[in-house]
Design goal:
Shape: globular
Radius of gyration: 19 Å
Distance between the termini: 31 Å
Strand order of the largest sheet: 3-2-1-4-5-6-11
Number of strands: 13
Order of helices and strands: EHEHEEHEHEEHHEEEHEEHEHHHH
Helix content: 40-55%
Bound molecules: NADP nicotinamide-adenine-dinucleotide phosphate
Strand content: 15-25%
Largest sheet: 7 strands, parallel
């Protein structure tokens, strides 16, 4: 049995699907009762509800599991205490393999949500647990969330310069890698940077979007204060906004470049290209 935390989120659902394809039994830990059907629909055979901030609500999730895939909540100020809770429970239930869903370049202190993951990685090093750390770069799926608006406006808007280069990765490739790593002990004590493609500018991303969607699309910089206003009215909290603004400023200042060699080696094939991810998304939308 493999336990997945943060299981009803977009990463969790993808990882459960990838493990189900390999006929692995999955226990999903979700945050709210309404999320139980989401984890079941992805293929989890057991689903438990609990709050990782409060260790007393989640011990049952750790009973009888062989491995654990820990997905922390997105942009959570509690990520370190959540990491501590999950590591403590994994130790006391003698989990054989702890796999941590971290982030590419957790060492960057000016991005608080990256730095918090660095501290959780550090806790793992001294935990005595057998672990693997996956460090995915930004998902291509982050762009797909705004696809309707991009198609409507013919604009791909980002809150940093359009010449800023970023390396992206397909979430489905990350999920497949997680399933490979979780299925055996070949990858224990490894830390993998997971990058799907060479860094490209936002202008280049707009060109790929335009070519794939057969429409004129150009990249445009949205001023940070306008982005924050939109994020606030969309319901995002101030701490999350602050963390994301710091990330955007970092991207603009230094770019976010990685190398896809490790992911290619783990998958045994080329990582999925952005063009293919856009086409897959559109065909899934048509099928719904
Ligand atoms: N997006 C990217 O490009 C990217 C790249 C690299 C790494 N990551 C990392 O991947 C992780 C997962 O991201 P995601 O986009 O999959 O997040 P997500 O969709 O928000 O999923 C996180 C899940 O955790 C649940 N959750 C929140 N607080 C919880 C708590 N206290 N106890 C138990 N569950 C809780 C959430 O429930 P609610 O929805 O009810 O809050 C949600 O179902 C994040 O740590 C992120 O930093 C993301």
């Amino acid at each position: 049995m493999i336990l997945i935390t943060g299981a009803a989120g977009k990463t969790g659902q993808a990882v459960i699907r990838a493990l189900s394809k390999r006929a692995e039994a999955v226990r999903a830990l979700v945050f709210r009762a309404e999320q139980v059907p989401i984890a079941e629909a992805s293929g989890a055979s057991e689903v438990l509800v609990g709050d990782m901030r409060d260790a007393s609500t989640i011990p049952d999730a750790f009973t009888g599991i062989r491995a654990l895939y820990h997905i922390p909540p997105n942009m959570s100020a509690d990520e370190i205490s959540i990491g501590r809770n999950v590591i403590t429970l994994a130790r006391s239930s003698a989990v054989e393999h702890f796999v941590y869903h971290s982030v590419f370049r957790p060492q960057i202190e000016t991005m608080p949500h990256h730095w918090r993951k660095m501290r959780v990685e550090e806790m793992l090093f001294s935990s005595g647990l057998v672990f693997t750390i996956l460090q995915p770069t930004a998902y291509m799926q982050n762009i797909l969330g705004g696809l309707d608006q991009i198609q409507r406006d013919g604009r791909y808007r980002v809150p940093y310069g359009t010449d800023t280069t970023t390396s992206l990765v397909d979430l489905e490739d990350i999920a497949e890698t997680a399933a490979i790593v979780l299925s055996g002990d070949e990858h224990v004590h490894a830390t993998y940077e997971l990058i799907g493609m060479d860094a490209v500018s936002q202008d280049e991303i707009a060109r790929i979007l335009g070519e794939t969607l057969s429409q004129d699309i150009h990249a445009e910089t949205q001023p940070l204060d306008a982005w924050a206003r939109d994020a606030r009215s969309g319901g995002l909290g101030e701490k999350q906004i602050d963390g994301l603004v710091k990330m955007f400023q970092y991207y603009e200042g230094y770019n976010f470049k990685g190398n896809s060699h490790v992911l290619k080696d783990l998958l045994g094939r080329e990582p999925t290209r952005l063009r293919k991810v856009i086409i897959r998304e559109i065909s899934q939308r048509h099928a719904r």
